[in-house]
Amino acid sequence: MTDLKRPLIAEAPQSAAACAHCGALLAPGQGRFCCTGCEAAYGLVRGLGLDAFYRRRESADGVLRPEISAPAFDALPLIREDADGVKSLELMISGLTCGACVWLVEQALAAEADVINARVSFSTRRLDLRWRGPAARGNELIALLSRFGFRVAPYTPACLRAAEDVEGRTLIRALGIAAFGAMNVMLVSIAVWVGEDMGAHTREFMHWLAALIGLPTVLVAGMPFYRSATNALRAGRVNMDMAVSLGVLATTSMSLIETFRNGPYTWFDGATALLALLLAGRVLDRAARKKARQAVAELLALQDGMVALIATDGTTRLVPAASVEAGQCVQIAAGETLRLDGQAGVETLLDTAAITGESLPRGFALGAALPAGAVNMGAPFTLEVTAPARDGSLAAMARLLEAAEQSKGRFVSIADRAARFYVPIAHAIAVATFLLWWLGFGALWQEALVNAVCVLLITCPCGLAIAVPAVQVVANGALFKRGVLVASPTALERLATADCAVLDKTGTLTEGRPVLIPEGQDPQTLRAAAGMARASRHPLAKALVRACPEAPLMQGTREIPGQGLEAGAARLGSPVFCDVAGVSDGMVLVFRAGADAAPVIFRFADRLRADALQAVADLKALGLPVELLSGDGPGAVASAAIASGIATWRAEADPHAKAAYIKSLKAAGRKPLMVGDGINDTAALAAAHVAASPAGATDLAQTTADIVLQREGLVVLPEAIRIARRAQILARQNIGFSLAYNVIAVPAAISGLVNPLIAALVMASSSLIVIANALRAGRV
Amino acid sequence: MEALILLVPVSLLLGALGLIGFLWALRSRQYDDLEGAAARILFDDQPGKDPPP
Hints:
The complex is a heterodimer of chains A (about 775) and B (about 55).
Chain A: H1 14-17, H2 36-47, H3 52-56, E1 80-81, E2 86-94, H4 99-110, E3 115-121, E4 126-132, H5 137-148, E5 151-154, H6 157-163, H7 166-194, H8 200-221, H9 223-234, H10 240-261, H11 268-303, E6 306-310, E7 316-320, E8 329-332, E9 342-344, E10 348-351, H12 353-356, E11 362-364, E12 375-376, E13 381-385, H13 393-408, H14 414-440, H15 445-459, H16 462-481, E14 484-486, H17 491-497, E15 500-503, H18 505-509, E16 510-516, H19 523-533, H20 539-547, E17 558-560, E18 564-567, E19 570-573, E20 588-592, E21 600-608, H21 612-621, E22 626-629, H22 634-643, E23 648-650, H23 655-667, E24 672-675, H24 682-687, E25 690-693, H25 699-704, E26 707-709, H26 716-750, H27 756-774
Parallel strand pairs in A: 15-22, 15-24, 22-23, 24-25, 25-26
Antiparallel strand pairs in A: 1-2, 2-4, 2-5, 3-4, 6-7, 6-8, 8-13, 9-13, 10-11, 10-12, 14-26, 16-21, 17-18, 18-19, 19-20, 20-21
Chain B: H1 2-27, H2 34-40
């Protein structure tokens, strides 16, 4: 009975169809790995005896694929040396997607004999590395990490600002203190409430005990609210924190008076519990947005950088781009992004897609102005800087942004709108209650004050203050799970109210990079051509490599910038370079295996995103008419518009025209949602009612956008709008409920029918109802 | 009621100890990487390594 059947599970499932390292789906004909980089990384992981990593890996497929040519980055200037010769380095590490990645990085570094300490912080993406030995080891250790597929960047001040969440820590501290205070005061207060046979002396002891705990708690833990309320008052506004502060402080001072008088009840429990509840909401809200800020800072760090400054004695050293002055020279390597405006003494080939939206690299003549943000596609050259970073074209764009964002800052959230009419009314009613009892009914002023404070306690907008934050926390969490980062606190509200959508073409509606059009090319020829293309950073060459990622680099390949590649007699490049007539230049590469072999033509196209049609249809179904606004030529824009089902389109719009168009829409009373990825879109993004940037957008676009899509594809955008709209409905329901509750409870308080126990119970139940309602925001 | 004289201070002292512990944990940055800490407890022990010379 041994020849029954084959074993049911022959091998680990990923070796059947997915890359054994990064988990990406394999193309037919590929062995166990999707590319040579993954194969090398897999060998490295196994060699270190760390293959437990693959059993724990939870990262999205394909994330860990090592870059074909990882950008060089010199860590030497960042390394610090202690007195006893220990070197230390702080790095930002990208590509950490789960705990297993943290484990792999730490173990792989710890396995190096000279590494003393390697510790990764998962949520801040920060790696603290310490080792004993020469400083040059730092670069070797970084190279080790990039061979696994992790991308490493200097830990910049921007990262630090995002991680160093001082305000967040203050909130957590206040929450801890408030929770401690509330629980202990409650212990005492419940004894007073139920202990009706309690003697007067015991009750007084209990009151003083409650005051001893409650007073410091209210003063310390309430600080975030008092500070926000005074800031708002100074700016001449009222906000919800002001109602909270007044309610809490009035309740506390009233309780203090009752303690001195040894009255039947004090309300320290209500004040502290209210603070704890509100602080918990704030802490959660902040944690949700911290993730978004962190992700943006991570993107920035990868793109932020140092430039190689050529000193007067001819040596080069890496310095921050911001410190370079006009007239100095920097070395630009092949494939490097220009960080400063300048000019070169040679002809250059630059990819300006991020600045103008053109999809192909363009030659610049000798002495022409080279814009910052362009990528060098040709040979290395020396850039003579014409403007320091603070006066350059990127800074000008940033100023344009600031101006636009200030106008956006005037947006008033629904919670603040509610506070604007609610706070004055609530306080007016409290004052009126006091006057009514004191003067109207001739009651003692203490008794009148108790009733007035009861009004304040009841109207203290517990439900109202958490009505909106609770919904936002849940909705942001639901969006985060779908790969949508919400960077601005009012973004959801603005997204829900958007009434038309304006999309950019290159990189937004399309993938923003050329893709080989399959025309039945011979696999062997494709492999040979891709092997040559590996030597180049030209976008078409990279597209060819993506079409055949397993092809090994053809040895001896030489690049002739702006024309093509040469390896012996084989040539790959523009039609002119390969002596082929009758083929239009553009998105075409020609390959000749030898001097007299027949030329093979590879055509490329900037493909529409696979879900573009679906996303546009969904947006329309949600009632948002869709328009296309692009800097590209009319032909390309029209065909993209027709293919994706967009009726209205505008071509050849420069950054100012884009921003002006968005502003004209707003002036006409529309609320445009702008989606764009390039530097040329940022002004329009900032001007829009709400802005989103797709996966792979430039850093400037990502920081400007309110909503950053992390995963490929646009179809998540309509879904985000649905979630945002649902969140708005729930927020309105919550506000409505809180107000209705006040309408019933306040008359009872004015008439003196409510004792503090009932007030506290009713208040807590209203908060619970509001929170339970908010939980529905995640279900769409 | 005499029990209160003893029990109330004891309960407050225990609570205060908890609060101090929380503030200490916050100050020593143990709340900075909550996700990492959650994953870290599942890691195997560090492989043995010779102390550096």
